[in-house]
Amino acid sequence: MLEDLISKIESQMPLSIDAKKHIFAIARERDLKKGSLLIREGNSVNKTFFVTAGCLRSYCLDKNGKEHTLQFAIKNWWISDFIAIYTNELATLTVECLTDSSVIEFNAKELDGIHKLFPEFESFQRHNLERHVVSLHRRILNQMQLTAEERYDLFLEQYPDIEQHTRNYHIASYLGITQQSLSRIRVKKAKN
Amino acid sequence: MLEDLISKIESQMPLSIDAKKHIFAIARERDLKKGSLLIREGNSVNKTFFVTAGCLRSYCLDKNGKEHTLQFAIKNWWISDFIAIYTNELATLTVECLTDSSVIEFNAKELDGIHKLFPEFESFQRHNLERHVVSLHRRILNQMQLTAEERYDLFLEQYPDIEQHTRNYHIASYLGITQQSLSRIRVKKAKN
User: Fold this and answer.
1) What CATH homologous superfamily does B2-118 map to?
2) Residue A157 to chain B, least CA–CA distance (Å)
3) How much is the average pLDDT of A65-78?
4) DSSP letter for each residue of chain B
């Protein structure tokens, strides 16, 4: 529900009545079935989604048709193809619902316009982006320096609520390993 | 020189005389010898650097002592340990000069304070962070879906000026491959 988003923003900054009204005016609540695609690779992208229930992921397909998962999103996370949004290019990612899900949908340009209308969002969003940069730097470093098993442990620690919604190949394609490797790691962990 | 930074900012936004004076007041120009370390893993980090000449890199060491390069920086790029800066934690990265280099050094807190003093920097920095997020998303996707040879080609295309300053193991540790693999790729390319 939209109140989830309002609460999340208000946990970081005071929100004026006008700003709240504006968010209500540009937001659209959507309930989606498992398997629904919100963004398709190759299409233009003008939507950003705030997740209020369920689990979604963004992924790309390589030239051999293999999927690579960039991001999972559960309650209180944002998801879109931010490469496409920030560069005005066509989608290189697909965003799909891994479960029945509820999202708040925004037109990306309208959402971006909030910074001009309510400049207090500038600093708020800058700090969000800083945190996002930190998580991406960490992900790159972890991908380079950790073993597959260490990356899986970290995934479970950082995203304890995601595994229940996902299939083996979703997680394997996020960790950059084969499903066979993931199964071996799981068997080994179950024995310990 | 400091003028390089001013030009770079002015290519994106108008800069008031007061803002320019403030940047001059908080900036410190430094000339550094090849091999100098600007940030050391495990230490506290309170500096951010804008490169005006030379080539630097940030890297971490894994538990086996192997280096992994997160970033290179040449003229007009910023470098620091942004994980440490944005989270207030100790450095997980080391930043070293790969060549004799010149940088503009800022105290990170003073630099951050510019957003409060001159709010026009909010939107400027938000857009910089958006572009940075795009490049990190692309790097993660490329690391997952491209072959080592494709990643090397992309590296040469995106950073044509870096190879001349770096050694084999710097680039290999950025691409996430062994030096032997990089050598094989180079031999193969030289034959074609």
Assistant:
1) Jelly Rolls (2.60.120.10)
2) 19
3) 93
4) -HHHHHHHHHTTS---HHHHHHHHHH-EEEEE-TT-EEE-TTS---EEEEEEES-EEEEEE-TTS-EEEEEEE-TT-EES-HHHHHHTPPPS-EEEESSSEEEEEEEHHHHHHHHHH-THHHHHHHHHHHHHHHHHHHHHHHHHHS-HHHHHHHHHHH-TTTGGG--HHHHHHHHTS-HHHHHHHHHHHHH-
Helix B148-158 vs helix B168-175: crossing angle, to nearest 10? 110
User: What pLDDT is stored for residue A159 in this prediction?
Assistant: 84
- Residues A173-179 have a mean pLDDT of 92
Q: Which of A126, A137, A146 sits opposite B82 (nearest CB)?
A: A137
On chain B, the residues whose CB falls within 8 A of the CB of A62 are: 144-146
What b/e readout covers B20-42, taking b as 16+ CB neighbours within 10 angstroms?
eebbeeebeeeebeeebebbebe
Q: Between 3.10.580.10, 2.60.120.10, 3.20.20.150, 2.40.50.140, what CATH number should domain A2-117 receive? A: 2.60.120.10
Answer whether A180 touches B (CB < 8 Å).
Answer: no
pTM for the model stands at 0.94
Distance from CA of A122 to the nearest CA of B (A): 6
B65 has a chain A CB within 8 A of its CB: no
Residue of A nearest to B65 (CA): A145
Indicate the domain borders of chain B. Answer: 2-118
